[in-house]
Amino acid sequence: MVHEHADGARAALITGASSGIGRCYAEQLARRGYTPVLVARRADRLAALAESVRRETGLKATVLAADLADPDDLARVERAVLDHGSLAVVVNAAGLGALGPLRDAAPGDLDRLVAVNVLALTRLSRAALLAFDRHGSGTLINVSSIGSFHAPPGGTAYAASKAYDLHFSRALQREVEGSGIRVQVVLPGPVRTEFFEASGVDSSLFPQESFVDAGDLVRAALAGLDMGELVCIPTLPDMTAWEDEAARGQALRNAAGLRGAISDRYARP
Asked: For residues 1 and 228, what is the distance between their CA atoms, to the nearest angstrom?
């Protein structure tokens, strides 16, 4: 199950909570008894979600309207994580996407994508660990993407940002081993949300049968967490495919990174 602190803390902070995957995390964690702290840009949607949570569960959610691409807003959310005192779960579900040739991308759009997908996730993960350290337990959930495995033309910045999220989370998992803190990274495929419209991406680029419901995805990810699955790919039928991929990466690191010599193929004739 999702951890709670020894002193009974039962709060969960969720970014990107106004819609899609983030909203589903807020709803489903509330049903599990976690009082949500809702973070997103759209205050009206957060207020409506908070009221919905109150009606369904009786829990009084906290609304924190913030744009994670804005340095001041990010610092405010970071401080909220550090100062809350009762957080048992932090979910980094906020994310931006973009498809198209890198030459055509507006610099400001690239800045926002990196700010939300990379910088905010990094800073809030750090804050979560520091907050959890006070209690000796906690659960951090970072939402990456199956796009982290493959960088298609036109998906340069997005795929790279999600690869960062994956490897960052994997490294954190090793850092917190034995500490009572868990880090799960979730890798969705296409999901029926507003993500594509908000990112200006044509969802018809993906086969419609490849899309899953956001609620089903989050339900599966939380079930995976209950089972101790810290790398969760809800649409992957057999996790041995991931285990094989991870083993190949480790073997490549050992073969190349620890050899201490340049390959003979680069020897001068």
From this structure: 8
**What residues does each domain of the chain span?**
11-237
Q: Measured between alpha carbons, how far is residue 233 from residues 24, 147, 209, 224, 230 in Å?
A: 17, 12, 17, 9, 10
Rounded CA separation 5/236 (Å) = 31
H/E segment holding residue 183: strand 181-186
Per DSSP bridges, beta strands 138-143 and 11-15 are unpaired
For the segment 4-19, the average pLDDT, to the nearest whole number, is 80
pTM, two decimal places: 0.90
3 residue type, one letter: H
Domain 11-237 grouped into CATH 3.90.1310.10: no
Is 19 marked active-site? no
pLDDT over 70 at 196, yes or no: no
pLDDT beyond 60 at 87: yes
Active-site residue (options: 144, 148, 161, 169): 144
| pLDDT(194) > 70 | no
Which residues, other chains included, contact 208 with Cβ-Cβ below 8 Å and sequence gap of 6+? none
Q: Choose the catalytic residue: 145, 158, 161, 169.
A: 158
CA distances from 34 to 11, 123, 138, 139, 155 (A): 5, 22, 12, 12, 36
Cα–Cα distances in angstroms (integers) from residue 207 to residues 162, 190, 191, in the given order: 21, 9, 11
Q: By C-alpha distance, which of 92, 213, 89 is closest to 143?
A: 92
Contact 78, 129 (CB under 8 A): no
Residue-level pLDDT at 193: 66
158 is catalytic: yes
pLDDT for the residue 6:
45
Q: Is 144 known to be catalytic?
A: yes
pLDDT at 227: 97
Which pLDDT score is estimated for 86?
Answer: 95
